[in-house]
User: Fold these one by one.
Assistant:
Number 1:
Amino acid sequence: MPTAVVTGADSGIGHAWVKELLKEDYDVFALDITISPNLNALPCQSFKCDLNSQDSITQFAIHFNSLSKPLDLLLNIAGIMAPQPSDSLENVTSTTLLQTFQTNTFGPLLLTQSLLPRILEAPNPRIGLMSSRVGSIADNSSGGAYSYRASKAALNSIGKSMAMDLKSKGVVVLLLHPGYVISGLDKSGETARNPDAVLPEEAARKLWAVVKSKGMESTGTFWHREGFELEW
């Protein structure tokens, strides 16, 4: 039975992806800062983990590493997005920047680092990093969203470096863009009103198909949920 660790598993894309993995008989370790009855009802192992806290990450890693289970799949999905008015050029603060980077950028790096020994034990390990198209510098034609945009651009850079460092060890690393998804990430509701927005279940299903279809030749690349590559 393959093993997966999924962050942001209590809601949205993370929760939907956990369900996809359970259909394929994965042993899933589902992580989030809060654990709801909906997650507890699934046949997976749920753990409260705050990606803003090194201690919280370390505590989970100690538990998981003690199980001596190879980690076949790590999905770093958890993320936050500040409301647009507070993430503008005029209003963004160091507090907003730090909070966003801690969850969206530093957390995925530090969790991956802490689980690396078990990742390297898997026969064909994969790491998925949930980025966003707004993190593409080449694609930026609208500005704004300073902390969110920069945190995803930085995550792309980290993912690329990770892919290069782990290529010789057989680990595939993919950066992923989910497109517009109806979830709790955007508190303004603007995303939900977009005609191209999809439910988390569709986004998770399509992203999982992308991850499964890519091999070492694609490590360190950036993919849309619809299966086409994105520019940096």
Number 2:
Amino acid sequence: MRLHTPSLALVATAALLSTTAAKSGPTLVAYVEVNTNAITNVGDYRTADGSVAFDIGIIFAANINYNGTAAVLYNNPKVQATLDNAANEIVSLQQKGIKVLLAILGNHEGAGISNFASQAAAADFASQVAATVNQYGLDGVDLDDEYADYGTNGTPQPNGSSIGWLITALREQLGGKLITFFNSGPASQSLSSSPASVGSQLNYAWNAFYDTYQTPSVPGLSNSGLSPAAVDFGSTPQSDAVSFAQNTISQGCGAYMTYGLNNQDHSAYISAITQVLYGQTTSYAG
């Protein structure tokens, strides 16, 4: 498809907003289930100084399917519709200074980020991911080791090298774009014992257990790239979200991850978080 290129005036306006806004602190992240909600919800919140509240929006989620011989990237109709509408949904967020990533995870077919049998297999899948990221102008990819059901359809079991092969191949093919990791499944165990040269190729890793505060163990990734906070808008009490924000600041962690941002006004909840992270309230402009 042909994507519309934003006008120079719009780019200049976005640049001006990003340079005049003064929000400083941890990167605030929001996963959005695009099967039922719009990724553009991420851009509906601003802190008191006019900054966007969220720094990263993650489209949840594309899948890793299995075609009988190899892993293939699959976008369900809702994910594909979001990508096809990039000019209105992805670019509009980027013009506000928000990075937009595509999450990828298993689909109960036996293929996932932990069972590539060779570097070549990992590189082949990485090329599929990179092609999608580049085609739709995304800012990167989020890796998630859930729902693979390893062994289904005769697929191999996880191995300790697979995630490292994939991260390395993605870094080679995506250059400076973001690569983040939802610290789940066998991949989390593999990364925790991998050389720092693997983890250092990631930009961020988030705790995968919602309603908890746990620091991911990824050698090579410093506190600036970690989110021990895992907040679900649908289940995490606001008091816990505030406590997680306080811990994030006191421990010098550089990210704060949330999930389940929907079409409703969550400004009171988000404001309680941003008051701790940035010393600013947040308002809703949806």
Number 3:
Amino acid sequence: MAPSAIPAALDFSQGSSNSLKVPKGSFSSSILSPDNLLTKRKIICFSDFDGTIFMQDTGHVLFDSHGCGTNRREVLDEQIKTGERSFKEVSEEMWGSLNVPFDDGFEVMKTALDIDPDFQTFHKFCLNNSIPFNVISAGLKPILRRVLDQFLGEEESAHIEIVANDAQINTPGTEWKPMWLHDCELGHDKARSLTEYRESAKLESEDGTIPLIIFIGDGVSDLPAARQADVLFARKGLRLEEYCIDNKLAYIPFNTFADIQNEVMNIMKEDQDKTGGLGLPVKSNPRAHIWRRISSKNSIPLYLAATPRDEKMFLWPEAFTEYQPKETGIPVTA
């Protein structure tokens, strides 16, 4: 909990939920687009936020404009990469450096952020096909929600579940405190969040179908969650793709979410043709399905994948998201 001395705090952790639940249908049948493929297999989509849905890092935009500044942030990022300081310790310094009210801080993000040009079309495709879309992020949930509300509109944004760290921010904006989701080195264990979704959803419907899990990311920090997915999409030219190539991990590259939509449509059609939506998906990750006893719907042990030792150095979210400042003419303090 935040220190009691913080006045009039905006405690975003109160009453919020980080559980991943399948949202209710969003669009009525009367406005379903031709993209509704009417396939039987349930698809569940998970995505990183910074560098994936948006091209910039929301935290970096705030730190550079209203906090420690670009130069100090880069020093702190390097401390994470070298292992000199932990991700949590550095993150708390970065967030603690902010001195701006929440609403005022959001103003800079309106012009400094670029959303993937095809994300909204893809999200509507997901809604039309009853594909739950969930964000898994190491950022702060109130910031991510506000950004989605601004760029998508509150009605559409409400259909996206966000699993991220909460925050406590006092009214003057002189105290920003992350409320970590998990008691671990990273504050948010993305693999654990996805695994908890598997457990709560049971991943086997009454008619015997098994959902296909998709993960979309840009950085190697996404690997723990990506390893739980059946299909992995990695943004072209960034570190997650480089790691997949170097380590011969199966993935599908993408430039925009239009590429993802085309691939997902192909996968849905192929799966319907070959399996009719029954049994394992045609694109199936054996490692992700180890925990499932297909022969028994009432016995589904929890499978927690251990991250290989040689990947630990890559599990720092702030260090591996590509920050691409937009040329807006807004001065950035250093």
Number 4:
Amino acid sequence: MPSQPAIPPLLSSHLQPASSKGPLGLVTSVLGASANWILLRQIYAALKVPSAQPVEATAGLNLSPNGGITCIDALQSGLGLQGGGIGEVEELLLKAVDEAKATSTRILLVLDGIDFLLAATEITLEDLLDCVMELREDADQKHQHVYSSIVSASADYPLIQRQQSPLEVDHAAFVMSIAHEADVIWGVRELDTGSARDVSGVLRITRGPAIERNERVPGEDFEEKELLYFVAGDGGVRVFEKGS
């Protein structure tokens, strides 16, 4: 496959800096369709903005703390796993934001896979939701450098629709609660017709309820889309419309 641009043309308008402060994006994925490529391109787009720096807390992506990125690897740092509870999580993230703002005036806060805390710790649904919302409120009130936030979470059928176990019920409630506060929702899933050699999955981009409530206004070029994508072995991504 020919070399692909870092930002696929069909996504360029959706990855532009937010026109208003404080937007929240939700990125969902399923087991057979990873959202890492979306998160990487959102981080890349943020790095292209002067004086911008992403701060990422992740359960599955190990980035080195250089090149303008501050990464807290949850598994290596023991984030939320050492008995400190949700207070430890919030304290560590706010400390990272404070350190990042020493060199940046615009910070993108990425909470990648933070829903794993529901399954791996004794942190409750209420505590985790409060943590996410307090991080955003603190960012607005005390940490003016945080410009926008992204939360990524799993949206597999057992976790969202089946809801038979307490974990499934809590996970579904967490994702739906974040979705209700989101400005934009990015969802990746497998093809409905099964696997294909030249298609990795489906990407759907929709306006979140926060936009519909007119709390914030998206960019003029924002358009809801459902696209196909292919992730090559070298990490390049081709995004295209159905039938093209």
